Amino acid sequence: MAICEMRGVVKHYKQVTALNKFDMEVREGEILGLLGPNGSGKTTAINCLLGLLKYDGGEITVLDQAPASRDPGLKRRIGLVPSDLAYFEELSVIDNISYFAGLYETNKREQKRMTGYAVDFAGLGKYRKFPAKKLSGGLKRRLNIACGIVHSPEFLVLDEPTLALDAQSRKYVLNGVRELNRQGTTVLYTTHYLEEAQELCDRIVIIDEGHNMATGTLPELIGLIDAEESVHIELPCGEKEAELLERVRSLDGVVDLFAHNGRVTVKLAPPGHHLAALIESLRLWDIAYSTISSELPTLNEVFLSLTGKALRE
Fold this sequence. Notes:
The chain is an alpha/beta fold. The protein contains eleven helices and 13 strands.
């Protein structure tokens, strides 16, 4: 079931087409990654999706309603954590989160419960009374997330939530996103870090120049490009190296083959995932190995192949 859909969406800024018949579907319960270089249309797509920006053509539905709906119930079901820090620098952590809770709930007892939940979720208990402006960069990002999830939305948009964070803070944020998803929140996640998308997202949309270039799981995206798989075989003391080279050379799909110091590397034509078949062949040939591993194309290679650009350009 789709939480939101964008079908043939068009958005113009004077002479610039920011979205050009853009399609995207976010499925219930998933973490969908939206990846694109600067100026690709990511932010425009998000703003149109959330009703923050009017679009010129196409159709958008969010939770079975138009994004510009004035239904307060719809706003309660959606959350946004923007890439810019969106809170009050002069207020304390607790006062910031309490303010955002009050935007969705008038009952004071429920506001207090919501605020406590968000503080605990973001790990900000020790900093409740700290002015926001005195927090470290990582804690500021966590406060930004707490303000965006205080109302426990069904659908959450996270726009580059780990921007400029250190490794420890990024790990904390990513674990938090996973936990939200486990609790039932559907997530649309944008990032400039390909390794994050590869690790976190169930499916990925690649956008460039306002077009949906590709959508799929990582294996599905890898299958779209003409990239070889590399299998590395470590032999004990270099045993049977010559025999292995001779036998592997005769297999279908072998593009290249070389050995060095007891390590044999086999280059295999796409599509990938040849490892299981190669292991079975080694068993049938009675050739022992110390280790065997497969190296598939990365998301970075997929991105470069489809867009001709690095993600951070």
